[in-house]
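Entry type: protein chain
Record version: 2
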Amino acid sequence: MTSASLTTEQFETLVKAVAAANVKVGTFSHCSARYNGEKDSTKLEEFISAITTFKTVENIGDMEAINSMPMLLLGDASEWWSGVKSKAKKFDDVVNMLRDSFCPAKPAWRIYAEICEGKQQKNEATDVFIRKKRALFAKLPKVPSENDQIDILFGMLHVQIRERVIRHKVANFDELLKDAREAEDSLNEPSPHTLECCCSMMMMMMMIMILMMTTMMTLSVIELCGVVGVM
């Protein structure tokens, strides 16, 4: 009996064929993200981010992802997909169609209006305020430089923060947030006047308690003397 031998090229071809046969075809069947067509840009972007990440991690091909989209869409979104799915040739088409249909991009002037419409409130943490504004900047067709963004937002910070942060020493958002946190910590520290008032209040309370105890002891002595006198 003669044994068959394979050339290096034939062996590599065989290995690739076996590997291809063992490749698992992924779908969105185990993806927990769902979208019902709500016209909320934040929820839509969270949904898109979730399914894009899942597709990458599970190594799902474009056609498999497109074919399994009905698993993820509910209500109005499911009805919408039934009418447009034939237009999707690759997964990027799905993402663009979702955005165009449910949350089309806002014009730049409207985004700038949203950025400028609210100043930082007294009890609002600076990092939260900045995070919300930067998310709006990211939606602009042409995002301003970091320095320009800081210039726009600096005047919107609460006056107590602005008084404690020196603008020309801030080169980026990390430095702005660091200085703002230090300012917030300083504002949260009790002032000497506050400590003095607290000490005065404590002393007053102690004096009142001593006076009450003294009064109670005096009354007890008087009652005892009355009882002895009767006897």
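Comment: Residues 3 and 11 are 15 Å apart (CA to CA).
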